[in-house]
Write a structure and sequence with these properties.
With 145 residues, this protein is mainly alpha-helical. The chain is built from 6 helices and no strands. The mean pLDDT is 80.
């Protein structure tokens, strides 16, 4: 399948550069620029180390992006939990006293609730006896005043 149109042939599309002609020694031929990163000593050492590791079979693991992100989030979450635990451990004296008082108040409230439930569940004759005692004490106190 030969193309009949000479304009569609890639050779004819681009102009050939002048420096290809070796006839003229006055022309300065372009040279490839030096990459400062590749010429640096650190880069060369790193490249050499990677090549050696690859030959040994110790190439760095290529993890998917999602897995890297999930591992980073997990690490961050663990660090955050550790900081919270440390903050809870380092409570001040005031906070400790407030916690103790709060626990005491809760215990007192529970005891009051238990007493109320016992009084409500008590038989009728116990309630009447209690009322009689109260009225007897009130009547005994009334003549004194």
């Amino acid at each position: 399948t030969e193309l009949k149109d000479p304009y569609l042939i890639p050779k004819n599309i681009m102009a050939e550069p002048d420096y290809i002609d070796e006839d003229n020694p006055e022309l300065i031929r372009p040279q490839k620029l030096i990459n400062p990163v590749k010429s640096s000593r650190n880069h060369q050492d790193l490249h050499r180390e990677l090549l050696m590791n690859q030959k040994r079979g110790l190439a760095p693991q290529n993890k998917p992006e999602l897995q890297k992100v999930m591992e980073k989030r997990k690490r961050d979450q663990v660090i955050k939990q550790q900081k919270e635990e440390e903050a809870q451990k380092k409570k001040s004296d005031l906070e400790i006293e407030l916690m103790k008082r709060q626990q005491k108040l809760e215990q007192l409230e529970l005891e009051k609730q238990k007493l109320q439930e016992e009084q409500e569940n008590a038989p009728e004759f116990v309630k009447v006896k209690g009322n009689l005692r109260r009225t007897a004490q009130e009547s005994a106190e009334a003549p004194d005043s």
